[in-house]
Amino acid sequence: MDLFNESTDWAKALKPLIAKYKDNKHPLDYQNLYQLLVMVVLSAQDSDAHINKIAPKLFEKFPDMKS
Predict the structure, then answer these.
(1) What proportion of the chain, given as a percentage, has pLDDT over 90?
(2) Which of 15, 34, 35, 59 has the fewest C-beta atoms lying within 10 Å of its C-beta?
(3) Which keywords, in A-to-Z order, does the entry hold (predicted)?
(4) How many Å is the maximal CA-CA distance in the chain?
(5) With the CA atoms of 8, 11, 13 and 18 taken in that order, what torsion angle do they form, in degrees rounded to the nearest 10?
(6) Average pLDDT of span 21-49
(7) Quick check: 48 pLDDT over 70?
(8) Strands (DSSP E) along 6-57, which ranges?
(9) Contact at 8 Å (CB) between 51 and 26?
(10) What's the distance, CA 24 to chain centroid?
């Protein structure tokens, strides 16, 4: 598959992945996209389990992008 070909049918190409992972739960326990973004960045440095453990206190202190 040529990823840069403008005629790629992405819906068809992604269908097997969507079917395979459709019932899987994301390993990070997030409430919104802000939390997911922050947690993904942090999980690159530590385990998902540890990030899930520290997230409640982190988002209590920094609940949104403005904080």
Answers:
(1) 61
(2) 15
(3) Endonuclease, Hydrolase, Nuclease
(4) 47
(5) 160
(6) 93
(7) yes
(8) none
(9) no
(10) 12
What CA–CA distance (Å, rounded) separates 57 from 35? 12
Structure-token match 């988002």, residue found = 59
Nearest to 42 by CA among 30, 22, 19: 30
Pair of tokens at residue 53: 């453990």
Cβ-based neighbour number of residue 61 at 10 Å:
8
Residue type, 64: D
Q: What is the full DSSP assignment across 3-23?
A: TT-TT--HHHHHHHHHHHHTT
On whether the CB atoms of residues 28 and 40 are closer than 8 A, the answer is yes
Tokens 């598959």 sit on residue: 1
CA distance linking residue 52 with residue 56, whole number of Å: 8
